[in-house]
Design goal:
globular, Aldehyde Dehydrogenase, Chain A, domain 2, Aldehyde Dehydrogenase, Chain A, domain 1, 453 residues, six-stranded mixed beta sheet, binds nicotinamide-adenine-dinucleotide, alpha/beta
């Protein structure tokens, strides 16, 4: 049996070994999931809701344990990891509330009654990345289960442990066996087997744009629906009329949270030229004072990168001698990179256009609102963005003009379980979370009933 090791990215110590699921095992899991799904879909909606709420309660009771797993396998700070475990609980509770509210429509037609019925898809395959292993796994899993589906989840190679624990907790909560299965393993075997299995009705993929495109092409062969949550290169637009102190104070963690391994990271800081120098002066202490170190220490604000290869990738964007504001990072074992702001990049340079997925941002000046919008949109991505201004009209105009799925004004908040999330352009396809999240895991059936005698 093939196995692979899980490393603590802060120490490089091996903290576990998991088996690598084979394609044949994926097929067996999908068959078992299909059997479990039939019973689940037939159960009373209130009973499904009750079981999902119980799952949420069991997750809540194990929040600290789940958070500690994420600190160890993903290098997340303890504060973030606690939020992530709580987010799984919230996603399950929110989805449970939808099971009895998943309603079709009655549409006025001639000669009869027309009904739409929302039916579960069957078995849903969720393929998760390593950057937010628990929340992103639950984004797909919670609404899919609530809508009457079974879920087979393939976590990322580097971060399978929290997902495996969630599957155990689901059984402890009383969810039927095989309804929610977690299959650790490699993307090109276990992940690929899920994508190509005809018994998997939908794929929910979060990860890189490169792999997302490959999966989309393979789903096309089976006309299999999918959602894609991919990369980003999000702008943080700071206008001269903003509260500059607040904008500068918020900018560091908007791209340093999770060591920048966040698809919503605001890595292009666009600053109006008239306040550009002042903004940089305010930014310097904010970057230099970020506490980078042991993620299990409550005071730590930023932990390590996930792996050696991610560290090498991030380093390649920051050549020695680059004009930069730098923070600090520990030396020694672990995949550490300091907070970094590049101040002399051109708008078209690789650091300003490619997703680095590390604690690195560029800062670029702009003259006026039109140039700010044009720079913000000068990217193949369109996931998130922030707009700092005190002018309400400008906030709304720029929100309408920026082609991205998740914008925030005078804030960097992007993700809430109750609001829709997803990307424009090459950042993705479809939406997750929010009020329509269950409907995304259903087929709509239209039934016409003649009332003519
Ligand atoms: P990745 O694309 O390499 O892997 C993501 C997942 O896909 C993993 O579970 C992996 O095993 C699996 N996979 C890889 N090859 C596969 C294949 N051929 N078939 C099926 N599955 C396969 O990405 P990553 O390195 O885990 O994550 C980093 C990237 O993900 C970044 O580019 C980031 O922006 C993006 N991301 C986007 C979002 C979002 O919500 N938009 C969230 C997190 C990460």
């Amino acid at each position: 049996m093939h196995e692979h090791s899980v490393l603590n990215p802060a120490t490089e110590e091996v903290i576990g070994t998991v088996r690598a699921t084979t394609a044949a095992e994926v097929a067996a899991a999908v068959a078992a999931a299909a059997r479990a799904q039939r019973g689940w879909a037939a159960a009373a909606p209130a009973d499904r809701a009750r079981l999902l709420r119980r799952f949420a309660t069991v997750v809540d009771e194990h929040r600290e344990e789940l958070a500690r797993i994420e600190v160890r396998e993903a290098g997340h700070t303890l504060g973030n990891a606690r939020w992530e475990a709580a987010n799984v609980r919230d996603l399950l509770e929110y989805a449970a509330g939808g099971t009895e509210r998943l309603m079709g429509r009655q549409i006025p037609v001639a000669g009869g009654i027309d009904l739409t019925i929302l039916e579960p898809l069957g078995v849903v395959g969720v393929i998760a990345p390593w950057n937010f292993p628990m929340p992103i796994a639950a984004w797909g899993t919670a609404p899919a289960l609530a809508a009457g589906n079974a879920v087979v989840l393939k976590p990322a190679e580097t971060t399978p442990l929290s997902a495996l624990r969630l599957a155990e907790l689901a059984l402890e909560a009383g969810l039927p066996e095989h309804l929610f299965q977690v299959l650790p393993g490699a993307g090109d075997t276990a992940g690929s087997a899920l994508v190509t299995h005809p018994g998997v009705a939908k794929i929910v993929f979060t990860g890189s744009t490169r792999i997302g495109k490959q999966i989309m092409a393979r789903c096309a062969e089976l006309t299999k629906p999918l959602t894609l949550e991919l990369g980003g290169k999000s702008p943080n637009i700071v206008f001269a009329d903003s509260d500059l102190d607040a904008a500068a104070a918020a900018a560091p963690m908007s791209f340093l949270d999770n060591a920048g391994q966040d698809c919503c990271a605001r890595t292009r800081i666009l600053v109006q030229r008239s306040v550009y120098e002042r903004f940089l002066e305010l930014l310097v202490p904010g970057i230099e004072s970020v506490v980078v170190g042991d993620p299990s220490d409550e005071k730590t604000e930023m932990g390590p990168l996930i792996s050696e290869s991610q560290l090498a990738r991030v380093r390649s964007y920051v050549p020695a001698g680059a004009a930069a504001i730098r923070g600090t990072a520990p030396a020694g074992p672990g995949f550490w990179f300091p907070p970094t702001v590049l101040t002399a990049e051109s708008p078209g340079s690789p650091a300003a256009t490619e997703e680095i997925f590390g604690p690195v941002a560029v800062v670029l000046p702009f003259e006026d609102e039109a140039e700010a919008v044009s720079l913000a949109n000068a990217t193949e991505y369109g996931l998130s963005g922030s707009i700092w201004t005190r002018d309400v009209g400008r906030a709304l105009r720029v929100s309408q003009a920026v082609r991205a799925g998740n914008l925030s004004v005078n804030s960097h908040s992007s993700v809430r379980y109750s609001t829709p999330f997803g990307g424009y352009k090459q950042s993705g396809l479809g939406r997750e979370l929010g009020p329509d999240s269950l409907a995304a895991f259903t087929e709509t059936k239209n039934v016409f009933i003649s009332t003519e005698a």
